[in-house]
Amino acid sequence: MRINLRAVTVPVLLLLCGCHGSSERDDGTWVVSVGESYLTEEELRSALPVGLHGEDSVAFAENYVQDWVEDILLYRQAQENLPDDEEIDRRVEAYRRALTIHSYQEQLVDQEVGRKVTDAEVEAYYREHTEEFTATEPFLRGIYMKVPLNAPSLRTLRGWLKDTPAAHLDRLEKYGISHAVDYECFLQKWYPLSGFSVRMPEIRGRALRKGTDIEVTDSLYRYFLHVEELLPVGAVLPQEYASDEIREILTNLKRTDYISRMKSELLREATEDKRIKYYRK
User: Fold this and answer.
1) Tens of pLDDT along 138-179?
2) Other C-beta atoms lying within 10 Å of the C-beta of residue 168
3) Residue 20: per-residue pLDDT
4) What distance, in Å, lies between the first and last C-alpha atoms of the chain?
5) Hey, what's the torsion of the CAs at 242, 245, 250, 253, to 10 degrees?
6) For FRET with 185, which of 44, 89, 103, 133 sits at 20 to 30 Å CA-CA?
7) How far is Cα 217 from Cα 225, in angstroms, rounded to an integer?
8) Can you name the residues that pair with 140 across neighbouring β-strands?
9) How far apart are CA 224 and CA 213, in angstroms?
10) CB 63 within 8 A of CB 71
11) Please, is 215 exposed, middle or buried when counting C-beta atoms within 10 Å of its C-beta (0-12, 13-18, 19+)?
12) Handedness of CA 3, 9, 58, 23 (dihedral sign)
């Protein structure tokens, strides 16, 4: 069943009157027309998503044209049958005002706030709100390696991993360069378990703990994962994984503070200039 979304597009057509098609008469560029409204080839091309080709682009164009025709027909009918044009004008003006204010605020905030969150601010926020950043999945430190089934010296490789891997890093590095299809040493960096679910079969659901060594195979490869350290679900996230979220939080706080100060300053200036008059009955 096709869902009709015309109720959403009508206010946009009312606000952006140029969006209901070109009225210039140039038969060579028209795709479709409804009365004196015309959809041009240029408008249709500009609506096509980047990277869409072949049958997908044809299907999109057909749907777009159909939707455009329905919009115009419904818009014309609404114009003829809605009795209170003044109410629509008021609502359109309110929407235009809100959209203009929002666009202006975003422009100013981007200029004044932008990416001005420092590493020191992130660290300070993390220290003060550490308990708010907890792991929703296990995080690991360790070594991962994927090798062909016929890779040499597998017994030696297992020994290096089960022993103290840090003591065999040179050997592991050389083995990984020579024989591994995929290799990563992350003894100094935390990785989420989900990061390995696409690189290693049967990893999800495994009981993991510090010192765990996992080895699984498929029809082509053998996979090794040594867990040197484990951060369980519910533990405090390392700052490196909380930093992006903290930057977003701090940016939003600065955004809110800047907009509030800007409004207060505008109100102060207008009051001093006596541009505001309050009328009481």
Assistant:
1) 899 999 999 999 999 999 999 999 887 788 999 999 999 999
2) 17
3) 44
4) 55
5) -140
6) 133
7) 12
8) 191, 230
9) 7
10) no
11) middle
12) positive
Ranges assigned E (strand) in 15-110: 30-34, 37-40
Q: What is the mean pLDDT of residues 202-215?
A: 84
Pairing verdict, β 30-34 and 139-148 = unpaired
Burial level of 38, CB count in 10 A (0-12/13-18/19+)? buried
Residue 128 has pLDDT above 90, yes or no: yes
Separation between Cα atoms, residue 239 and residue 168, nearest integer Å: 28
Q: Please answer whether residues 46 and 83 qualify as being in contact, where contact means their C-beta atoms are separated by less than 8 angstroms.
A: no
**What is the distance between the alpha carbons of residues 266 and 85, in angstroms, rounded to a whole number?**
33
> Burial of 175 by CB count in 10 Å (0-12 exposed, 13-18 middle, 19+ buried)?
buried
DSSP code of 219? S
CA distances from 111 to 74, 252, 256 (A): 41, 14, 14
Q: What is the mean pLDDT of residues 101-118?
A: 82
Q: How far is CA 107 from the centre of its chain?
A: 20
| CB-count exposure of residue 246 (10 Å: 0-12, 13-18, 19+) | buried
